[in-house]
Amino acid sequence: MSDTTEKIKELLPIEEVIGGYIKLQKAGGNFKGLCPFHNEKTPSLHISPDRGSYYCFGCGENGDIFSFVEQFEGVDFVGALKILADKAHVPIEWQEQGSGNKNDRLRKVMHDATRFYEKVLVKVPKALEYIEKRGIANDTVTSFRIGYAPNSWRMLFDWLTKNGYTKEEVEQAGLIKAGPSGFYDRLRGRVIFPIFDVSGRPIAFSGRILPEHEQVEKAPAKYINSPETDLYNKSEVLYGFDRAKQEMREKDQCIVVEGQMDLVMSHQAGFKNTVALSGTALTLGQLTRIQRLTNTIVLAFDADGAGLRAASRSAEIALGLDMEVKVVALPDGSDPADVIIESESKWKDMIESAENIVLFYLHKTYDVTGVREKLRYAQSNVLPFIARIGNKVEQEHFVQVTSDTLGSTPDAVREEVQKIQFKLASGNNSEQTPVKESTVTPVRSRITTLEEQIAGIILSRKDDVELRQKCESIVDKERLKNLLESPKTEKYVYEVEQLYSPEVIADEAKNLLHNLEQEYLRKELEHITRSLREAEGRGEQARVDQLLAEHKTISQKIQH
Ligand code: ZN
Asked: At the topology level of CATH, where does 241-347 sit?
């Protein structure tokens, strides 16, 4: 595999790959552009063709072409490899991968099963009728590879084993289940929605039962999904994500719906920035993946109890990640698919008028009668969201709005919000809510800055042995070693390049080393002064004399 990645790196200059996504301008031997990973107006993403790497001074993102594509496209390494291998016209030899063989077989089974379901669909009029009745167009059926699982016990199983797959492989792909009289197909009599990974490969299925079978079998589930397999991790995958990536970034917004039908219809209506859940609520992993592309989610969940709970849970995690959360007001008892089949423009209006989640629930208090009831409602439906907002200014804004709406005071609302925060902080909280990093930036000492710059110079002039020896004679050995092996080395090199042109770098190194030496001396002097005071306090005259002599020697070395 490493041969393949090296070959791709040789064939694809980094400025071309990144330049294909964002506009770049030349900056000396490097390039720079507006960073796509954080919001900014002046370019702080720097790209070095020599090193084949990039670094952002604004948000610290850094890496090579593979990590850039992973981040930008929201795909994993294999996905990025696939994209870049295509671009470079390099065939990927999957066999090189360690566990590649087994997962490759699973992917093949899923690929063939998808084709099987697709082929069956065109032969089953009642399934086609149902799909048409739900408003799904032919193009959409083809593009989403919608299929049909025949209402028989072993048709898929037999077909796959006839085509060379073992029972174990079919079972590991989650397609069959063990019963009293042998294995049988897990999905039967259902319209099949393949679930794709980030690179668009089928890894699981979701089956919607046909209405006529709904009555026949005893209380069958409307939807049945594949179990988790080596390919399918429910808490990571989002249905539709593979085709929503681009538009999520462009529209700077991600619409989240609950079901496959909702998703397919939303895409068909032109909202390709829609993804659907596979479980109950959005997980931290899914939200982090979305956040690489946009910071705004629009929740369009059913207005029933389960839908609301899923929305609340998702919103809480998202707010903890500093994302903006909006809510679509769906009419009671209808889901997005119902709305869209009635009128696509109505769906458009609803998305456009989606409200911030705090305001959405706050406005619902208008429908609650009775002052106490209103307050109770706000307490359990509005304040928990405010409590989770990471940005203080934003939080304060909602405290004000809430107190105005409820006819209370900001102080009172703030106090209630703080109570909730206290509860959350004291561990009465699910492990899923991310712990926000402290926003307090530690004050960097001048010594650290100088040491990092010197490390950057050493790293950018790897062949300069003399320079390295000179640095090693001055910089604290342990710290220099740590810096040169730190994961931030890329940052140091880019910083040095920013500050000093290649012609002056050797002279600059001398200056920096001199300054650092001076800083070390000042620090030592501080230390001696402190010890001196202590020794004086204890009346240790001999020690005082010794320290005074040291103080004098060092003071003379310091240039004032
Ligand atoms: Zn950035």
From this structure: Dna Topoisomerase Vi A Subunit; Chain: A, domain 2 (3.40.1360)
